[in-house]
Each structure stands twice: as structure tokens, then as C-alpha cells.
């Protein structure tokens, strides 16, 4: 069972999930960074470049905060590219006493929210604009021009904020758009056009490369 809702902080979603033993979970890349409490342990799920697939060895409860693209590194004090495709125990970057208090909390969401609120830093406005532009399907060059950044500076700041460069971010945002459209019942031919793929074959190749399975398996 999965549920999510808007957290008290801007650009942050709170979520919870219960997984039965043996449950398989495929998490698609979304440009986000998650701070997760799982059965008394706390870790960071860094920004992924491809889908992550896990199997619950036993019944598992998860509570988490999902930071929108570009917002998590300021809270954690770690550049996103140091967390890309990694699951990192929070104890590696925070004081043991602080992590222990989170791990032992009766209300994990409240504890995680308090932790994030105490460490909150307003995200880089330029990177928020880059993420919005990528989500809207705007060309990378146009986004760079609007933000007043050279290609080199855009690449460097994107890696720090998102964990990868602007072209990878754009592919991931396009994947999320495509999956959302497909799950809403749109025909795949329409999905390819609306999401900004060259054609349906391009859609199929890119989804398989990023998600690890065909689009049809993500909507069933």
C-alpha cells in the first residue's frame, strides 16, 4: 500500500509504503532525492539514472520525504552527484545522536519533517527553473539561455543540484511524462507525440533503457 501527500515544506512530498514479504518494487528515475525511514533505519536514496528494483525480504514499512529535483542537496549538505544511483545511510553525513533520534521516532514523518525543517535551505532558483523547463520539455539550450548560463556552467550546476547533467535530467522528466500519460489511458502513439519523442519507436527504446522494461509493463 502506498500513499503520498504534500509535506509542510515547499517542493517536498511525504509518502509511506507497506510492502509484504517478497514484494518486488520498481522505482523509476524521477530527478528526486528521498530521505527514507525503513523499519528503524534511515537512509538517503540518491537521484537515479535508471530504475531501481528491490525485493522486500520481510514485511517492511517505509516513511519518507521526497525532495523535488534540485532541492534535496541543500537540506542534506551533500552535492547530488555524490549520491547518484546510491543508497547512503544518513549516519554517514549526520551526527549519530541525530540519526538515532530519527530511527527511534514514534512518528517517522514528523521526525523527518522536523529534521528537514531545521536544515532547510532555499533551493537554487536557477536550478528550480531548469527542472521546470526540463519537465515542460524545453530544449536544453533554451533553458541555459533563459538562466543566463553557459553550457559548461549549466552542466556543473546541474550535476551538483540533480546528480547528472541537463540532458539526462530532460530524458528522465520526459520518461515521467510518458508514464503518467500512459497510465491515464492515452494510446502509446499519442504518448510519444505529447511527451516529445521523435516517434513511438523512440519512446519504446528510451523507456526500456531507463525503466528496464517496456512501457506496457509499467501501466499494468
TrEMBL record:
Keyword Transcription regulation (UniProt): yes
UniProt-listed SMART domains: HTH_ARAC (SM00342)
GO molecular function: DNA-binding transcription factor activity; sequence-specific DNA binding
Record-linked Pfam families: DUF6597 (PF20240), HTH_18 (PF12833)
Domain HTH araC/xylS-type, chain residue ranges per copy: 124-220
Keyword Transcription regulation: yes
InterPro entries: AraC_XylS_family_regulators (IPR050204), DUF6597 (IPR046532), HTH_AraC (IPR018060), HTH_AraC-typ_CS (IPR018062)
Record's keyword terms, sorted: DNA-binding, Transcription, Transcription regulation
Name the UniProt record assigns to this protein: AraC-like DNA-binding protein
Organism listed in the record: Actinoplanes digitatis
Amino acid at each position: 500500500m502506498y500513499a503520498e501527500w504534500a509535506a509542510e515544506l515547499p517542493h517536498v512530498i511525504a509518502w509511506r509504503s507497506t510492502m509484504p514479504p517478497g514484494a518486488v518494487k520498481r522505482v523509476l528515475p524521477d530527478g528526486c532525492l528521498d530521505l527514507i525511514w525503513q523499519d528503524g533505519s534511515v537512509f538517503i536514496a540518491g537521484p537515479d539514472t535508471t530504475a531501481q528494483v528491490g525485493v522486500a525480504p520481510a514485511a517492511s514499512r517505509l516513511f519518507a520525504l521526497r525532495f523535488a529535483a534540485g532541492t534535496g542537496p541543500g537540506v542534506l549538505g551533500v552535492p547530488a552527484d555524490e549520491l547518484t544511483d546510491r543508497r547512503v545511510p544518513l549516519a554517514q553525513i549526520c551526527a549519530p545522536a541525530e540519526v538515532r533520534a530519527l530511527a527511534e521516532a514514534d512518528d517517522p514523518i514528523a521526525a523527518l519533517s522536523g529534521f528537514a525543517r531545521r536544515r532547510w535551505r532555499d533551493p537554487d532558483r536557477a536550478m528550480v527553473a531548469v527542472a521546470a523547463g526540463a519537465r515542460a520539455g524545453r530544449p536544453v539550450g533554451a533553458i541555459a539561455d533563459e538562466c543566463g548560463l553557459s553550457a559548461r556552467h549549466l552542466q556543473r550546476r546541474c550535476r551538483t543540484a540533480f546528480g547528472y547533467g541537463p540532458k539526462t535530467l530532460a530524458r528522465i522528466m520526459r520518461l515521467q511524462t510518458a508514464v503518467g500519460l500512459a497510465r491515464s489511458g492515452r494510446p502509446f502513439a499519442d504518448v510519444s507525440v505529447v511527451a516529445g519523442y521523435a516517434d513511438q519507436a523512440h519512446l519504446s527504446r528510451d523507456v526500456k533503457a531507463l525503466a528496464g522494461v517496456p512501457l506496457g509493463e509499467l501501466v499494468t
